[in-house]
Amino acid sequence: MDSENYKECQSMQRPPLFEANCFIYWKNQFETYVKFKDIDLWHIIVYGDYKPTIKNKDTGNKQVKDNKINLFVQKYEEFVIFNDETIDWAFARFNTIITSLKALDEFFSSHNHVKKFLGALPTKWRPKVTAIEESKDLSTLPLDELIGNLKVYEVVLEKDSEASKVKKEKYKSLALKAKKVSSDEKESCSGSDEEYATAEVLKKSGQKESKPIKTPMSSETKLTRDEDGDSVDNTKYRGMIGSLFYLTASRPNIMFSVCLCARFQEDHKPSHLEAVKRISRYVKGTTHLELWYPKGTRVETIVYVDSDHAGDYVDHKSTSGVCTFMGCCLTSWFSKKQTALTMFTTKAEYVSPEKASKQALWIKQALVDYDIKLDDIPVFCDNKGAIDLSKNPVLHSRTKHIEIQHHFLRNNVQKGNISIVTVSSEDNIADILTKPLKREPFNLLRLGPGLMEPNT
To answer: Which residues form a coiled coil (predicted)?
Structure first.
């Protein structure tokens, strides 16, 4: 017979070749055979000298049979399939136990065989086991059919494993290549991801040697489409925006400026590029600032909201800003242009608390899983008209232009889930997310989210 047709211990129709790599199989077969023929002989092999007790022939035969049954029942109950074991090899071991029990007139039902084999499979087979249990009737499922299904899935696992190895090798190769390029350029990329992103921003914008600036955007900046301006390299501009967006995950003080510049990625001009370079110069001068998260803070949710009515100079839509705190720790923030054009300040200010209330209620519900129950969550807003509208249960003519979906806020105020609280514009932390500010109010509001020097 051609030995290439027999892979290592993987043939279910015929036993594997009597070779060193199949030692475990033949060892188990030899042990099973000797125990089946003469249990006393097995004791002599294992323990050396063994003196069997002289018994009546019939009694001795029955005792030997009972010992054999107990031995194979124990093997049946303790049967486990190993991670690196194929289905063919595992079934060969399992079938040997079943056959030995049948020879001793000890039978288990086919239903028990199916459940036992499924339960013996390793953890990586759990999805397949669950699928079989849900789609098949285990009480009538033949063992041969089960083995066939498992062998098909085994091929899928092998392909996934090979694909995963190829993917890992590919990523490893790319990582080594990136490391080599970085070494060739003599760029110092050590430190945190944020430091690396900051270095990338300064590199792409060409501001490494520039002088730092105190605010990310001038309060007099009015970005428009600038149709008369010359076009700018798309790749460079979008690369700078992408790197700055990464920094907004830990720097709420540049969120508004970056989002505003990102609106012109499709058709940007020199004026937009200069605005991005100014943000880069501000980032260079504020690398020492970090978000402060003190220990032992109380678990209570507070939300600040603000809106800049018709602040966009292109389509005159409003910009919403939301800051959410857990105690004194800033947990989430966003600056986003509203989708609809609002004719009145009240509507623009009313939409922002509505968006904030959804996030606040989600946090409130999530904390219930940790046995933390909050009372009404305060939402701080600086617009009296929006606050009055949230508390007014009557829909009159002045509110007909507001979509019904935004009255979600008023419904939850009436239910006591949230409460709208007045705050002055000077103390509204979310103001930093809706418009460019002058230096003094900007630096003051920057402290609100907890952006400060580590040793302060």
So the answer is: none
